[in-house]
Amino acid sequence: MQQLQSIMGSHPVEKINIPFCQQAFISAFISFIVANNISTQVIDSPEFHFMLLTLHNDVVILHHTTVRGIIIMAWDHYFYEMQMEMKTASGKISVTMDI
User: Fold this and answer.
1) What pLDDT sits at residue 68?
2) How far is CA 21 from CA 17, 56, 74, 95, in A?
3) Interior CA angle at 36 toward 43 and 80, to 5°?
4) Which end of the chain has fewer CB atoms at under 10 Å, N or C?
5) pLDDT tens string 39-49
6) Which of 99, 75, 43, 8 is nearest to 83 (CA)?
7) Measured in Å, how far apart are the chain's first and last C-alpha atoms?
């Protein structure tokens, strides 16, 4: 734990005891993939499978195309919500970019 904390810096790692739930795992896994911009191709590697199975031997490991589909559905949902929010905005919306 001390070695992990030295790697992580001043951000202590706390262990949270949460009963395993496949749906919660998938949700957390998708969030991890998206937030860290990780290629979904890594999901199919034997090393990644081994790592997940060492954490929980009953985990169902999704294929990378399934994960990609879940990410696209989540993006579509978020995009729709953003469109609805923009339609009901009380003022004009402007977007600027510095490319």
Assistant:
1) 92
2) 12, 10, 20, 40
3) 95
4) C
5) 988 989 999 99
6) 75
7) 43
Q: Where are the domains of the chain?
A: 18-86
Annotate the chain with three-state secondary structure.
Answer: CHHHHHHHCCCCCCCCCCCCCHHHHHHHHHHHHHHCCCCHHHHHCHHHHHHHHHHCCCCCCCCHHHHHHHHHHHHHHHHHHHHHHHHCCCCCCCCCCCC
Cβ–Cβ < 8 Å for 44, 10 = no
- CA–CA distance from 80 to each of 37, 73, 85, 86 (Å)? 22, 11, 9, 10
**pLDDT tens readout for residues 47-75:** 999 988 888 888 888 899 999 999 999 99
Tokens (6 digits) for 59 = 């985990």
pTM of the model: 0.65
